[in-house]
């Protein structure tokens, strides 16, 4: 057996907060052989990113420290290196790509300069050689028109392209170890599939090792040779990928593997009355130019989309980012200006003024994507949930409102006794339950769910989907479910609308769409989402 | 995050927990933590108490330093000279207002009753006519018995212990410095607090409206503020005070015209940032009115930034008043003012007690306020809150 390239032995990471030490990583050990891909899998807070960052010693020292452990890279202990020696390792022998391509590049430097800087720094290349090498790298990571892109700034590139530039930067010095920290999480499914394909190709072409950090088991199965499952800072199971997936030994791994949203939408009675009938809806944002701000064109965020939701029905709206699905949802709730008729419970609401529409909001609720952003950190749970009642149900006194809050919290599976706590004391999934309780407290008939599961861990996603389906059944709710996550949509929607660039590409009953997508775009989307495959047709947008 | 919050099974029936206990003052856990953080900052906490005591004492300045007795009994009648004006006829004199420091009147009252004096028997505008040396007179404890003797002998004494003391000396008009400091401190702090308070309210309202609505309102208001701040306020003040003698409230009004803009920028920025937060959007979806959203959801966000600026705004207001007084464009002549005391110190370099007394009081007041402000800001710092 050959010597491992990287050997992490008994590594612990602790963070000092005031007087206390919090252990984030607890004595983990794993090896990476040359040319091997190892995946660290776990849910948020399991310590996988911290482990990866400690390999490069990028943690906020000295508040972070290592009570135990060694990190051997090519037989050399990285723990003992000084900051100067460490700097030579970073970006040269070991490189890293981060999750967020929007913020990982300096917005003020051109692509040429950002990649060239590393080459000049570590290799001492001249301006001209660095440029030639940069161009070569951009070709390598599959950026089309590489010459013209050299002078581009990050904001001129799409998310996928930026991630490719990040990868080019990481590959610039032909590293031996490539660490990828959730490199595709922030990307659309089709782009994600492309990036994964690129990484696999590059790895075999350059013969480097890869440490891949992700929460997405589908990606692991696709890309990793071996997998380490992390839970609460410990590695609870590790082994070859196929073995772990086929025969998970630890209960947590089994739970993770079983956590995919399952089931199908509640069946819909044929005579269900229509709750919302909208469209064709247009949301055009004017582009203004020149001194007099003349309107020279429009960004057609939503361009003539129609939609109707019946009682007890879930209409799923899917599409990649920028397809206008959220804008459509906000337009129907009258939270953005739109053109076109919106009929809610038989009343036209598109022409109403803000004041006139306020009483109707009781029946027209919304749950947002980010459970951390959608709850005011300064209000207790009871205050958050009762807020709508204060406006919509003015007859209730303090005690009655608390009872309604208790009932709403109970309905979403939270203990009413926690109602006087604050949002920061709850986990992401619990916060999303609170956000749902806030919508439910008003007993609405229609709820717009804007990616309610996207910010949550896989196992929690499944629970929230169950909860939503259960609430729908009990209360005959109409949902408009917006998501880019097709697995969740499949588990919840009766009717699916596929959107691209503000227009409907395909729509129909969920079963028939998922069974046999008709348009090329939908097929590509499904291939990327369910099989992580980037076929020729999948290069929808780069 | 706490994963241990129990998730109940649907079988249990929903019961609201008992109402939170009504204490003396009901504080939310958040505010309780803030209070703890405030107390944890020892310097700020001590400053707060010292300042509070000084301020409360100075609010009762009339009972501390007054040229009229607080209480007096004259021929069996109980009088309140500090609060009620009695004509001197009552005591056999001829002035419209009684001068209780007049030896003749004092003797008359003492023979027919008694007087209860404040600790310092001078008000801010009392001229000490019995100065042993020409004004500005140094603190009495710096004088020799030699110098005091002529005055002391009038009362049948021999040395400085037998005359009325000016603990910190007198100014160039023979007015007691201690009395002027007590009244001057009060007027400075009140002016600072009122100016900072009103200008904050106006500034926050203006910033909130601009940030929340954005668009044209924001554009027009921002341009207006830019033009408005370009007006040199000091020149304007000098011009106005050459036409009218500015009183306390006129000065307050004029300074208010220009000081309200200081908070607009930060508050506007906070509102611009926070108006697209999801919880604000959620509140709109719940049907809350704009005013409620601004007050309940956005204002708390802006409060941290506001509180950061608050100590500087208060101090800025106080120093503005002081510097105007120093230049002679401030409060009407004769008002007790720290700036005027400093100006006297500058004009009378041979009398260092004037400048020093003024300097130390201003330095103490400004430092205490900054320390308090610092502690309040730390207490509201969200990163410190959830430790």
From TrEMBL, chain A:
It comes from the Bacteria. It is found in: Cell inner membrane. The lineage of its organism: Bacteria, Pseudomonadati, Pseudomonadota, Alphaproteobacteria, Hyphomicrobiales. CDD domains: ABC_NikE_OppD_transporters (cd03257). Belongs to the ABC transporter superfamily. GO terms for biological process: peptide transport; transmembrane transport. Residues 6-257, 287-526 form the ABC transporter domain. One of its GO terms (cellular component) is plasma membrane. InterPro entries: AAA+_ATPase (IPR003593), ABC_Ni/Peptide_Import (IPR050388), ABC_transporter-like_ATP-bd (IPR003439), ABC_transporter-like_CS (IPR017871), Oligopep_ABC_C (IPR013563), P-loop_NTPase (IPR027417). This is Dipeptide ABC transporter ATP-binding protein. PROSITE patterns: ABC_TRANSPORTER_1, ABC_TRANSPORTER_2. GO terms for molecular function: ATP binding; ATP hydrolysis activity. Gene3D superfamilies: P-loop containing nucleotide triphosphate hydrolases. It holds the Pfam family oligo_HPY. It is a peripheral membrane protein. PANTHER family: ATPASE AAA-TYPE CORE DOMAIN-CONTAINING PROTEIN (PTHR43297:SF14), OLIGOPEPTIDE TRANSPORT ATP-BINDING PROTEIN APPD (PTHR43297). Keywords: ATP-binding, Cell inner membrane, Cell membrane, Membrane, Nucleotide-binding, Translocase, Transport.
